[in-house]
Amino acid sequence: MPMTATTVLTARALLLDMDGTLVNSDAVVERVWHRWAERHGLDGDEVMKVVHGRQGHASMAQLLPHRPMEKNLADNERMLAEETADMDGVVAIPGAPEFLASLRELGLPHALVTSADVPLSTARMAAAGLPLPDVRITAESVGASKPDPEGFLKGAAELGVAPAECLVFEDSGAGIAAGRSAGMRVVGVGARAGDHRPDVVVRDLSQVRVLAAGDGAIRVSVAPGG
Q1: Calpha distance 200→178 (Å, rounded)
Q2: Is 17 in the active site?
Q3: Options 19, 148, 171, 199, the catalytic residue
């Protein structure tokens, strides 16, 4: 939704997706998934409409519904290894370094909630030059992939904040659906997000400012931008 004035949201914790939200890893994701699509006789562009935001095995289950899950899980391990070895083109989303620095400097509660596993999330954040939040919910932390809300609910629990008082930052349809299912408001980041009706959409994190508002509250200002 286009914004003509600054939008102000108040929360007690921020839950941050990684890929597409803090880190631009699209080049790697497209390379790896297009190779996978070719191996399975699928259209790569159609595959890309499914994979963002989900764990790999969950995407495979949707794309190859009759395939045994054990094959998806084994394939997912290989895909994660490919992605972890390929950091070419991985960069920070504009505004992400300053956004994370503000959260850290002000001591504001926040967590990373990603469908990547520990090795991949650690490698991508490092490649983008971004610090890892102290609280991290990764693929190993959950039994169900986004759009299931488990990851966001675990992030809220780790921070000791009620779900309704958390604000999610997400780029994908699966992630936005997960945040909504968790009973949280969602800031959509980037072009993909606008198709999934988050509470507000930003081009990137350069449009976002955070402040400590007192009494444990976080004031999030979302400025209009091109």
Answers
A1: 16
A2: yes
A3: 19
- From the candidates 17, 75, 117, 204, which is the catalytic residue? 17
Catalytic status, residue 88: no
| Residue showing tokens 């007192």 | 214
Cα–Cα distance for residue pair 53/80, rounded to 1 Å: 14
Compute the distance between CA of residue 223 and CA of residue 122 in angstroms, rounded to an integer: 30
What proportions of the chain, in percent to the nearest 5, are helix, strand and coil? Answer: 45, 20, 35
Tell me: the pLDDT tens digits for 73-111? 999 999 999 999 999 999 999 999 999 999 999 999 999
Which residues partner with 104 through β-bridges?
A: none
pLDDT, tens digit (0-9, with 9 covering 90-100), for 11-51: 999 999 999 999 999 999 999 999 999 999 999 999 998 88
Chain centroid to CA 60: how far?
19
Q: Which residues of 161-195 are buried (b: 16+ CB within 10 A; e: fewer)?
A: bebebbbbbbbbbbbbbbbbbbebbbbbbbebbbe
Question: According to DSSP H, which parts of 16-95 are helical?
Answer: 26-39, 44-51, 56-63, 69-85
Would you tell me how many other CB atoms lie within 10 Å of the CB of residue 31? 15
